[in-house]
Design goal:
43% of the residues lie in helices and 11% in strands. It contains three helices and two strands; from the N terminus they run αααββ. A two-stranded antiparallel sheet has the order 1-2. Strand 1 and strand 2 form a beta hairpin. The longest helix has 16 residues.
Length: 70
């Protein structure tokens, strides 16, 4: 039965599925993705900074000290 967890996924199909999701989510085109360093792309997709949040395209950073006026 196709799609069961015990089956090994075809790497080409997985990569094309990832490309499709990136194109839809970020508006990138297939040519740009093909020319991208795969390691850099995966680093970008998995980067998580606990002191940084992106909300509606704006980057918010956690304060490291209280404001001077306080």
């Amino acid at each position: 039965m196709a799609g069961t967890p015990d089956e090994e996924a075809d790497p080409e199909q997985v990569l094309m599925g990832l490309y499709g999701k990136l194109i839809k989510a970020h508006g990138w085109n297939l040519r740009e993705l093909d020319e991208t360093n795969l390691e850099t792309l995966f680093d970008f997709l998995t980067y998580k900074d606990p002191n940084e949040r992106i909300i509606n395209g704006k980057v918010y950073r956690r304060a490291t000290a209280p404001p001077k006026w306080l």
